[in-house]
Design a protein that fits this description.
Number of domains: 2
Helix content: 40-55%
Number of helices: 4
Distance between the termini: 23 Å
Low-confidence stretches: none
Structural class: alpha+beta
Strand content: 25-35%
Mean pLDDT: 83
Number of strands: 8
């Protein structure tokens, strides 16, 4: 199944009704363990004999670094987007290409002519950019093409949503 949105909307500004934000319990547990290690390091810095000032300072430094890292992880990694029908986690990113590839991909998107045998060529940089969101199981794909115009990338297409078998074919084409 294929759905589209207007060109004015970007992939990150639009939400699909079958996507849902969840709190990742696993990431919160990992961050909590790191924070606990940091607290233990800070406590050890006060328990260690004061004649061992280097060791005490090392424990304190490591404890503070671990606490800051745990806070960073808690705020950046604790939320994840899930594709509701399959419960699969969504990953997102950008792939770059030349202008010629951009036009070819645009035609493929408009005509919905993706095939299992075709794989798209992407580069480290280029005038064209493909923003995507894809479920880990490949059952949901959202893509949008952008082109570099001086100083910024501007949308060339709306956001195209693919689900089920269509999504598997599109995911095969854009996976590297």
């Amino acid at each position: 199944m294929k759905q589209t949105t207007s060109v004015e909307e970007t992939l990150l500004s639009v939400t699909h009704p079958q996507l849902e934000k969840h709190i990742s319990v696993k990431q919160i547990i990992v961050s909590s363990c790191i924070a606990l290690s940091g607290v233990i390091g800070i406590i050890l810095s006060f328990v260690v004999d004061k004649s061992e000032s280097t060791l005490s300072m090392a424990f304190l430094s490591i404890g503070i670094i671990l606490m800051l890292f745990a806070l960073y992880r808690l705020f950046t990694k604790s939320k994840e987007v899930i594709y509701k029908p399959t419960g699969s986690k969504i990953s997102s990113g950008s792939l770059y290409m030349d202008t010629v590839e951009l036009q070819n991909l645009k035609q493929m998107m408009v005509k919905n002519e993706f095939s299992n045998s075709s794989r798209l060529a992407f580069k480290e940089g280029g005038n064209g950019r493909l923003d995507y969101q894809m479920s880990k199981d490949g059952r949901f794909v959202a893509i949008q093409l952008l082109q570099f115009v001086p100083y910024t990338y501007e949308a060339v297409t709306g956001v195209y949503y693919y689900t089920d078998d269509d999504a598997l074919v599109v995911a095969h084409c854009i996976n590297q």
